[in-house]
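--- STAGE predict ---
source: upstream dedup step, 1 unique chain passed
mode: sequence only
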Amino acid sequence: MDIVILAVVIAVVVLGALGGLIVGSRRRKQPPPPPPTTPDITAPPAEPHVGDEAETPREEPRRTIEEVDLPGGSAPVTVEEPPTEAPEIEIPEPTEGRLVRLRARLSRSQNALGKGLLTLLSREHLDEDTWEEIEDTLLTADVGVQPTQELVERLRERVKVLGTRTPEELRTLLREELITLVGRDMDRTVKTEPEDRGPGIVMVVGVNGTGKTTTTGKLARVLVADGQSVILGAADTFRAAAADQLQTWGERVGAHTVRGPEAGDPASVAFDAVKEGKETGANVVLIDTAGRLHTKTGLMDELGKVKRVVEKQAPVDEVLLVLDATTGQNGLVQARVFAEVVDITGIVLTKLDGTAKGGIVVAVQRELGVPVKLVGLGEGADDLAPFEPEAFVDALIGE
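--- STAGE serialize ---
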């Protein structure tokens, strides 16, 4: 019995100790603090949440412009753009006597021909070897075979008759014969003033690289300097820069440029230029043509088409062929081809100051039967001059 009572007491004590341990551990273990509450954020009306569908717009009262109080102050500031300045119009140099004024420049590069001839003719005895040297000098200067033979024959006859030859007599003799060879009586006027109508129509043709577009722009300056109004037709639609280049030349002297789309129809541009020239009462229409084409049609066929289309409105008064004087006899080959198609009426020789071969003037005139009407003597804007035989020959033989 005592043993039973003792076992019960021990069991009660053990249970009591276990219950105290459990209560103590619960008191020492604190629960974690509750998480902070997140404030409710109301999304603006009609704005979609990320990843959610847009909410249905809510009707809200809105104030009209009359109900809104506007802040006082000055009127809104208007920003004025600076005015676009028109390009300054230049006054070209007068053309009268322009070649004479440029003679010094021409003579520096050209008088090798004249001085060489004078030196040979001044020899005490003019034997056959000397006359052969004279022929070689003329041929080297690109005078051409037939003109050279004619000039030598005339010089031989006159020197034989003259007898004693002073330097001044020889210079006068040579000057007279060269002027005769160049052609004193040829009509070198650029025909830009038709009597029965207006405007005068001038086509400028030639291969690329001869300075054709530049020459057209310089010719516009020559005409403006003579008091004429000019319309430019940029019919060289193959070269992207040609129309821009021509327009720049025109703007400098107040001449309007008619142009079309790149790689467009050249004949269409030429037609529009003549049409505008007639409508505006211009004195002259200058048409710059292509020296090569982007199409499969031949260059000459296209030039012929341009001329035919233009002549549906009015006849073409001048067809000027631009030749590079430095090309010599190669330029004559070009001249023959162009002359077969567009009926050349005049020659423009460019870069004449850059070569001693001034005889190309004679050769090209003989080849085509048309006169040299203009010569280019440099890179300056006013370095295109009407051709004057006397001034040219004086430059050849020097003072």
